Amino acid sequence: MDFLRPASWEEALAAKAEHPTAVPIAGGTDVMVEINFDHRRPEYLMDLNRIGELSEWQVGQDSVRLGASVPYSAVMDNLRAELPGLALASHTVASPQIRNRGGVGGNLGTASPAGDAHPALLAAGAEVEAASVRGTRMIPIDEFYTGVKRNALAPDELIRAVHIKKADGPQQYSKVGTRNAMVIAVCAFGLALHPETRTVRTGIGSAAPTPVRAKEAEDFLNAALEEGGFWESGKIITPSVAKQFAQLAAGACNPIDDVRGTAAYRRHAVGIMARRTLGWTWEQYRGAGRTLEGAA
Ligand SMILES: Cc1cc2nc3c(=O)[nH]c(=O)nc-3n(C[C@H](O)[C@H](O)[C@H](O)COP(=O)(O)OP(=O)(O)OC[C@H]3O[C@@H](n4cnc5c(N)ncnc54)[C@H](O)[C@@H]3O)c2cc1C
Fold first, then answer.
1. What number of other Cβ atoms are within 10 A of residue 216's Cβ?
2. What is the DSSP letter of 210?
3. 28 lines ligand 1 (CB under 6 A)
């Protein structure tokens, strides 16, 4: 195995163009497990750790540009206000050691349906900045996941950053696991209220071949909130609306039975998490979180 150590982003892109099978390594918390278990024996390993810009972030007017190698702990420490859903999801990842190494770029690279960043990115709205020597393109997060552990990157492309919409309302993340830490999700649910556009977005993890949004549930809730004047009044969401939202969210799942849980359990749990996260976020919106713009 050859070890490539580009010192700059341009060098990394050139190396990836020359060796498209080279496996990038950021925190290594997925890559090294695969190598140690002999699941993967790449010809080239490409260390991205000398490229400082990948560990930086910029807070813009509408979105945060998160460098591909920014670790979860930095999101939790620095971006809780701008990216509350992702910060909550980061909290649930593994242990402090893993959160200090692993990050969103690696989660996207692996594209496991169980990755914790995905539901939060889907709910917030995000784009992946992918680059190669051919140029840069922005991949909407909804189009990024193409199959089980597959993503939309071309063989010569690298993730440079993820652009995530700044929260304009409450966000929540809920995860079912067999214990409270160091556990891959049995299933997970992210929800973001977007009062500016009067929309709700969701993300489901570990309950389909890829991370997915519960689009029918979103459409139903968006219509119900609009028709009932909920955004203006901030009144309590009726149990029948919450129940229907939960059922549609459960219906968006396409889970399998595996060692972590049965398909039926996952579907049921996603419904429960959808209802709970809706309750939590709506209470936040009704309370101190409700802005005058939201009520306008
Ligand atoms: C003990 C343990 C517990 C874990 N628990 C969780 C958990 O609770 N939740 C969870 O979601 N994950 C968990 N993981 C998995 C892992 O920590 C995450 O997926 C993490 O986000 C990976 O980030 P990384 O920087 O370490 O990626 P790496 O291992 O460096 O890379 C992961 C993949 O992304 C690719 N990649 C990395 N950077 C780039 C880039 N810039 N461009 C293109 N491709 C790139 C790599 O080639 C590789 O295919 C756990 C892992 C371990 C070892």
1. 14
2. S
3. yes
